[in-house]
């Protein structure tokens, strides 16, 4: 009697993918420390203090300092220097990231690209520990380099998501990653703010506490990156367009080919434009929340810190909630209604009464819930519109839309304040970005766009 091979007991592919997805989450945990502790909270005030000393403004972190420092022949107000550095880094990233994405698509070592960009970025971020006295130049250079390298690492990180998940799994994978990032970033921020506020009990001055916090964010970023690098598996490149020459030349060639080919994917382009607008609104709300709370609603530092931490931890739940909601109703509906919710939030923010802590924190909860969900689902939803094998390049375009144009909202916010003299109409003006994003989302034919990209259409989109 002829023996036959035993039938497989179970399909283990989903189990293997889930293990890869858990490893992948750790990079969200790792890099969020840099974005939260360094870029969002602590770097700006310290840079203003140090640059202010050089300019003769004194030693307090006052963003009203109008005295200038010389930056490559330009005389920039010390109080505005962090904003200018952030704008320069984001605009530079818009040009650099697509080239990095093209290189990533041609490599079978995505996780190592992610790792080296992350470790290089964390090295420069660690040098912010030496931002002291009146030596602002060092901080200005290294924060720009670290920000660009962080963006480069995310191009590989986002592309890896496509390798380790099916189309139907993406929303949950992205949501868990964002949630993990909010939790990690919030945990370190809580520790660092405790150290800064309690510096006297530790026997150190406040500025040293801030510098140690910046160093801890760099070490956190570098250290936790080891986990995904150790556990993720590389996947060979697929569907790579033939280009002659070396790797760098082929990368530029593929980039140009993709930009020309983008017109063949009109739904992909429509979503990118929608994301450009509504994400600009999101980034400006995040940027302006502390300004609005302190200058318009007259809250002190303790209330603002409580709001920052509340938003960080509630956004963890918001990302998970939207992930589950998307599994039932589809990411598209979540993004549409999430954008509507952002419009309601900015209208409500305009009418917040001064010094009403309960309503201010309630607004923070609303921001956190919607922020966590819309950011997580934007990443996974966009992945469905990317032609297979070109994830690095297309996610680079996605990041370029986010980084290269994220100053539109802050510009409008500043102009409206200058014209009206109030932050209330300034915050309301941001509704324009959400409205434009919503109009473009409503023009999106989701199933057509996914099919044009050659991807499987999930049962619920």
From TrEMBL:
Signal peptide: none
Keywords on record: Membrane, Transmembrane, Transmembrane helix, Transport
Keyword Transmembrane: yes
Recorded topology in the membrane: Multi-pass membrane protein
Superkingdom in the source lineage: Bacteria
Regions that span the bilayer: 84-104, 116-132, 138-160, 180-202, 208-230, 270-291, 303-322, 334-352, 358-382, 394-417, 423-442
Main location, first listed in the record: membrane
InterPro entries: Atg22-like, ATG22/LtaA_families, MFS_trans_sf
Subcellular location: Endomembrane system
Gene3D superfamilies the UniProt entry points to: MFS general substrate transporter like domains (1.20.1250.20)
Name of the protein described by the UniProt record: MFS transporter
Organism lineage: Bacteria, Bacillati, Actinomycetota, Actinomycetes, Propionibacteriales
């Amino acid at each position: 009697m002829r023996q036959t091979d035993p039938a497989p007991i179970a399909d283990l592919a989903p189990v293997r993918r889930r293990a890869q997805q858990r490893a992948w989450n750790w990079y969200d945990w790792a890099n969020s420390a840099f974005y939260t502790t360094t870029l969002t909270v602590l770097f700006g005030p310290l840079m203003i203090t140090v640059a202010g000393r050089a300019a003769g403004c004194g030693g307090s972190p006052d963003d009203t300092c109008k005295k200038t420092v010389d930056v490559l022949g330009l005389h920039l107000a010390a109080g505005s220097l962090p904003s200018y550095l952030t704008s320069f880094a984001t605009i530079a990233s818009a040009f650099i990231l697509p080239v990095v994405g093209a290189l990533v698509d041609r490599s079978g070592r995505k996780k190592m690209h992610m790792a080296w960009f992350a470790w290089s970025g964390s090295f420069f971020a660690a040098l912010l520990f030496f931002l002291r006295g009146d030596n602002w130049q060092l901080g200005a250079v290294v924060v720009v380099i670290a920000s660009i390298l962080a963006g480069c690492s995310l191009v590989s990180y986002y592309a890896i998501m496509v390798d380790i998940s099916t189309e139907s799994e993406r929303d949950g994978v992205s949501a868990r990653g964002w949630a993990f990032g909010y939790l990690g970033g919030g945990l370190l921020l809580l520790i660092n703010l405790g150290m800064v506020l309690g510096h006297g009990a530790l026997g150190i001055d406040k500025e040293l506490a801030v510098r140690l916090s910046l160093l801890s964010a760099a070490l956190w970023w570098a250290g936790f990156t080891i986990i995904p690098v150790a556990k993720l598996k590389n996947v060979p490149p697929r569907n790579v367009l033939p280009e002659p020459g070396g790797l760098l030349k082929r990368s530029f060639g593929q980039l140009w080919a993709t930009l020309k080919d983008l017109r063949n994917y009109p739904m992909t382009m429509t979503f990118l434009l929608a994301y450009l607008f509504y994400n600009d609104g999101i980034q400006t709300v995040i940027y302006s929340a502390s300004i609005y709370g302190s200058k318009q609603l007259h809250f002190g530092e303790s209330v603002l810190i409580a709001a920052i931490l509340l938003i960080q931890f509630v956004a963890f739940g918001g990302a998970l909630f939207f992930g589950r909601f998307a599994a039932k109703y589809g990411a598209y509906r979540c993004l549409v209604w999430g954008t509507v919710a952002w419009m309601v939030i900015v209208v409500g923010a305009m009418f917040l009464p001064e010094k009403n802590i309960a309503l201010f924190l309630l607004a923070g909860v609303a921001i956190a819930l919607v922020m966590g969900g819309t950011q997580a689902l934007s990443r996974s939803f966009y992945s469905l519109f990317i032609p297979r094998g070109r994830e690095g390049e297309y996610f680079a375009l996605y990041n370029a839309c986010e980084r290269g144009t994220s100053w539109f909202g802050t510009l409008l916010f500043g102009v409206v304040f200058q014209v009206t003299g109030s932050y209330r109409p300034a915050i309301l003006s941001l509704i324009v970005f959400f409205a434009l994003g919503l109009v473009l989302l409503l023009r999106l034919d989701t199933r057509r766009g996914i099919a044009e990209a050659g991807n499987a259409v999930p049962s619920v989109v």
